[in-house]
Amino acid sequence: MKVILLKDVKGTGKKNDVVNVSDGFARNFLIPKKFAVAASDSAINEINRKKASQDKIEAENKAVALDKAAELRDKEIVLKVKCGSSGRLYGAITTQEIANELKIQYDLEIDKRKIELGESIRQTGTYDVLLKLYAGISTKMFLKVEEAI
Fold first, then answer.
1. Domain coordinates of the chain in residue numbers?
2. Contact call for residues 132 and 138 (beta carbons, < 8 A)
3. DSSP state of 17
4. Residues in Cβ contact with 22 at an 8 Å cutoff, skipping those fewer than 6 apart
5. What sign does the dihedral 46-47-52-53 (CA atoms) show?
6. Helices vs. strands in the chain: H and E counts, helices first
7. Whose CA, among 68, 95, 104, 120, lies 20 to 30 Å from 50?
8. CB burial string 35-45: b at 16+ within 10 A, e below
9. Is the pTM of this model over 0.85?
């Protein structure tokens, strides 16, 4: 019997997959527990329409991320912080501070977990920062840490 899975079922398939299972498994387990529905032509067409819509949205989001990555590539984020003599900071620069500066300087809202630092930043200077904008799309920016006056 062909069914469309409404949820991920271990050993059977993932959500929205059209799978062929035994009649008893479908009638006694999948359908009563609302894990699946019978695969009629209209239901299959509906699933295909939803997948096409999701693919289109995914492509649009990826295009926006690519444009943003090209726009931000090799730009500089300037961060002014308090520091002691010889340019040593009182604490380390966090990814949250970088995310806040990106919001202020470039109007880019990015999660702090999507920012990668190569090393702990405890001195004034210029550092490389990697921003992960989308799955498989990232860009490199420069972080310039300056002493606040």
1. 2-67, 73-147
2. yes
3. -
4. 1
5. positive
6. 3, 7
7. 68
8. bbeebeeeeee
9. no
- Residue-level pLDDT at 84: 86
| E runs forming strands in the chain | 2-5, 18-20, 36-38, 76-81, 115-117, 125-134, 137-147
CATH number of 2-67: 3.40.5.10
Q: How many CB atoms lie within 10 A of CB 90?
A: 9
Evaluate whether 127 touches 145 at the Cβ level (below 8 Å): yes
**CATH topology assigned to domain 73-147:** Ribosomal Protein L9; domain 2 (3.10.430)
- 3-state class (DSSP) for residue 110: coil
pLDDT digit of tens for each residue in the chain (149 aa)?
999 999 999 999 999 899 999 999 999 999 999 999 999 999 899 888 988 999 999 999 999 999 999 999 989 999 999 988 888 998 899 999 999 999 999 998 999 999 999 889 999 999 999 999 999 999 999 999 999 87
Which tens digits make up the pLDDT trace of 111-132?
A: 999 999 988 999 999 999 999 9
Please give the Cα distance from 138 to 114 (Å, whole number).
Answer: 9
Specify the DSSP class assigned to residue 65.
H
